[in-house]
Records
---
Amino acid sequence: MEITGFVTAIVIGIVIGALGRLVLPGRQHLPIWLTIVVGIAAALVGTAVAGVLGVADTRGVDWIELAVQIGLAALGVSVAEGLYARRKR
């Protein structure tokens, strides 16, 4: 992976992580760095899942891939929230 790919993964991870938090109801008590890490992981895994499903490379915006990434980010934020809250007690 080149440096531009790494920077792009971080930027996309920030956006995907934020969207993942946004689709969850209520307030999450996660630090921003953990949201970014979850977002980066969701973006990478979501791209792999979209590739397996055959929807990773479409004309225009890859809406299905984006939806998969956001869904995985929401799931990841939910799991991280549960683990982080349990650790804080």
---
Amino acid sequence: MSLVTIAQASAITGVSAKMIRHYESIGLIAAPMRTENRYRHYSEAELHELGFIRRSRDLGFSFEDIRQLLSLWRDRTRSSADVKAIALRHVEELDQKAAALAAMSRTLKQLAACCHGDDRPDCPILDALDPPKPAEI
């Protein structure tokens, strides 16, 4: 495969041109080769890295985690234990987020069950969202 433009790289990898430029600006990927007209051109290896980043983002990894994973991926002498540690830490974060989302869902279901959902203005959902009034001094 020859070099491709940013538009072609975007189409091939599913990463928007805006995100490709962002990844470059934060140093997640190296600046690509530029032609005389200053257009970015990407090699097959760079497309592969963009695909790696895309899959990592799809799994919810942070940019810092992706930076570490990319570094480990490029290092053929890496220890898989380092990679596993990053993945398991991320799993724990995802589990915590899932538990928080489940708690929010339960709360909203309880509030919705208490709401009559009719023409009356009384609404326990709005009551629960209304912050308590500050204590008087």
---
Amino acid sequence: MTDGNSLNKPNCVSPIINKSAVKKVKIDKIFLIITLCLVLFGALIFTSAALGLLAGSGAKYSDVAVSHIVFGIGLGLIAMVFSSRFDYKHLRKYSFYLYISALALTFLVFVPGLNFEHGGAKRWIDIAGVTFQPSEFLKLAFVIYLAAWLAAMREKVSTVKFGFLPFLILLATAAAALLPQPDTDTFLIIFAAGLGMFLIAGAKIRHILTLGAICVVLVGALAFTRPYVMERIKIFINPAANPQGSGYQIRQSLIAIGSGEIFGRGFGQSIQKFDFLPEPIGDSIFAVAAEEFGFVGSVLLIMLYTAFAVRGFKIASRAPDRFSGLLVTGIVILIISQSFLNISAMLGVLPLSGLPLLFVSHGGTAMLVTLFAVGIVLNISKYQRNS
């Protein structure tokens, strides 16, 4: 990059790397096993939750199964194998074009005739009956481009002109595509991943604190301009308020989680998923899991996500170059922050988000992109710096 304050295509010609400083090893089997456990456990939970929903709504199970199990898990595993095998350095080379393409695709949700609206939000594109959420691609493309840009900036990241301001502009481009949908939750996930990467890349603490303050002000502004955001905050402060309205979901979620007790009711035995719990295959699916598998099953699931994060960060710490280390860090933060945000919301620890629980909730696009991202981490795990 010739001009540090620019957000143009980063300089992808990296310095010559001493090949003797990098060794090639086998793929990280522990990370792979953790991922497969999450996928299998998630498929088990999803199957039970989906059957409960379909029994009440009369919907076709095949429609849900195709979008999640076949498209999401099936194609997702194929995508994971593919991304674990190609040269990850190509991602750095084409990072700018990937991000611009993802932005353009996300803006298509505002085009009449292409978008699909649900719950007052325009977050999906419908082409020939195939519906997908482009923001899932935007999350990954943002992390890839940010990793490439931060790697190119190196020590300049700590400056205002070449680090803080360009990073702020990059966040603004994502906000421009997501907030009007509205998709505040996805933007907050991108913000969290970007902030973590920016800090690790060498940003000054005062810049991080400034960005945090900007985020708080932005959320405050959204709360006063968008009633649903303010309502979520109010319900978070007082979950008992409006139990038949905006507080209904968290109330039913807590009932389901409490009903599971220590060992749960048993697989397929959830009661709350039948006409009581909203979105049992969506953002409320953790409550179904907690009711059927109890405290023990819930802790096991949380431990799997924790192990995913720990192993992922270990891979990042051994990554062969600055770009790959930042990329793995960003991917892990994307997946873990969204998953823990969903679980925390169902427990009443954080306000309701509406975000799916990755590896578990219904969502073919989310599963496909998540597994593709996992494949990138596995790819990078094959290369380590010699100590």
